[in-house]
Specification:
440 residues, alpha/beta, Aspartate Aminotransferase, domain 1, Aspartate Aminotransferase, domain 2, 2 domains, seven-stranded mixed sheet, four-stranded mixed sheet, 17 strands, 37% helix, binds pyridoxal-5'-phosphate
């Protein structure tokens, strides 16, 4: 095998630079919460492959399920039916909110978004507009890019994109300094859509409203729920005007937030549910789902996929769900989440912005999120970058997010131990203390 430098050189020669790599690590192996570099350094991975490896890298039971399925049948495409595909769709129907029970499988998050756009177009003839939320990330296909506003850089070069997309602000009430300020922000969001309907797009022309219940790339920001349940508000608006409500849970789904889907924190059922990432233990799989009567409006042949819902990905997903249920992974998500919030609160009282108070404290870092989808907000991108760099030097991998690069996201595997969580927290704390000067 070549050495690390030789691989990096060949990478630069033969792989497109368009795909940004966060670290110059060449993984020779990954297991549990760790990635092992070719130079034998073990890195504690607080990214889990961008919120994908819910039960850790290369979980032995997922690996075995993949191997067994590969030995049995790797691929047939839609030439025939196959059991894992049917069993997974059936299982998802029991996990998804409300009466969402029918699924189309694809290979990625962006494909699930594109498929959902097609479904919506079929369901809403004559309504050519979509409403999305500023700061959202929905993927890299042209359809999904058209709906994405987390960074202008993702859209640059590609105009004109799909027309009819209107952007409303994602109400970031976590930016508020006090409880009363947050209340004011949350209450004012009632006006946002009404203003849009009055000024730029008639509600009768809107096919769907799309939202990530917890903004992912846009900064790990939960939709407001303290004073106004924003998802409930959207549900009411959609019901009033005959608009479909779609939740993109590609990043927030599959127990990431301590529930199968983040929408459960809000008690709101969408019309269309999007999934990928954590759905299948690291094997590519995406899906969009809805009520059977809506999915049945998509005529045979109106959408398709060669690989979508292939036997290996479905088998991996079924095994993943079995492990999550059997091992009560939910309890670990809650415990580790509490550990993280308590740690920061003990070091920086007032840092937990999920708690409402009038007694605002100007802390070096602000913490928010559900489960193991936690955002650490810093005052500048430079400060966040220094904390990430310190972590890297101490063999802990942290990813950033947020339009302005001011957020570090904590999205480890959902099975991470108390000890490894503590190790990451200690390293982050050192990085914050080392680099904090009051004006950053
Ligand atoms: C909320 C959300 N939707 C869609 C996508 C696109 O997923 P994929 O990269 O699998 O196409 C992502 C990816 O980060 C995402 O976070």
């Amino acid at each position: 095998m070549r050495d690390k430098q030789a691989y990096l050189q060949a990478d630069a020669e033969h792989l497109s630079p368009a795909l940004n790599r966060a670290f110059d690590i060449v993984a020779k192996k990954a297991s549990g919460s760790f990635i092992y570099d070719m130079d034998d350094t073990a890195y504690l991975d607080m990214t889990s492959g961008i919120a994908v490896n819910q039960v850790g890298h290369a979980h032995p039971e997922v690996a075995q399920a993949v191997a067994e399925q590969a030995a049995n049948c790797i691929h047939t495409s839609c030439v025939v039916h196959y059991p894992a595909n049917i069993e997974l769709a059936e299982k998802l129907a029991s996990l998804m909110p409300g009466d969402i029970s029918n699924t189309f499988f694809c290979n990625s998050g962006a494909e699930s978004v594109d498929g959902a756009i097609k479904l919506i177009k079929i369901l809403q003839p004559g309504r050519n507009n979509f409403i999305v939320h500023r700061g959202s990330f929905h993927g890299r296909t042209l359809g999904a890019t058209s709906l994405t506003t987390s960074k202008a850089a993702y859209r640059k070069f590609y105009d004109p994109l799909v027309p009819g997309v209107h952007v409303v602000d994602f109400p970031n009430s976590y930016a508020a300094k006090t409880a009363s300020e947050r209340k004011a922000i949350e209450e004012s969001m009632h006006e946002n859509l009404e203003k849009m309907f009055a000024t730029s797009v008639a509600p009768e022309s809107v096919a769907a409203i799309l939202i990530e219940p917890v903004l992912g790339e846009g900064g790990y920001i939960p939709a407001p729920f303290e004073y106004v349940n924003y998802l409930k508000h959207l549900r009411e608006v959609c019901d009033k005007y005959g608009i479909l409500l779609a939740f993109d849970e590609v990043q927030s789904g599959f127990m990431r937030t301590g529930k199968w889907f983040a929408s459960e924190h809000y008690g709101v059922v969408p019309d269309i549910q999007l999934m990928a990432k954590g759905l299948s233990g690291g094997v590519p799989l995406g899906a969009f789902s809805s009520r059977k009567e809506l999915m049945y409006k998509m005529p045979p042949g109106s959408h398709g996929s060669t690989w979508g819902g292939n036997p290996i990905a479905c088998k991996a997903s079924l095994k993943l769900i079995e492990i999550i249920e059997r091992d009560n992974i939910q309890a670990n998500v809650h415990a580790r989440s509490e550990q993280i919030f308590n740690f920061f609160e003990s070091k920086y009282p007032g840092s937990n912005t999920m708690k409402l108070t009038e007694d605002y404290k100007d802390t070096p870092v602000k913490v928010r999120g559900f489960g193991l989808m936690i955002g650490l907000e810093f005052k500048s991108a430079e400060f966040a970058q220094k904390v990430k760099q310190h972590a890297l030097e101490n063999n802990v991998l942290l990813l950033g997010c947020g339009t302005y690069g001011t957020v570090i996201r904590l999205a480890p595997d959902l099975t991470i131990s108390e000890e490894n969580t503590q190790r990451a927290l200690d390293v982050i704390y050192e990085g914050v203390e080392k680099n904090y000067v009051s004006n950053n």
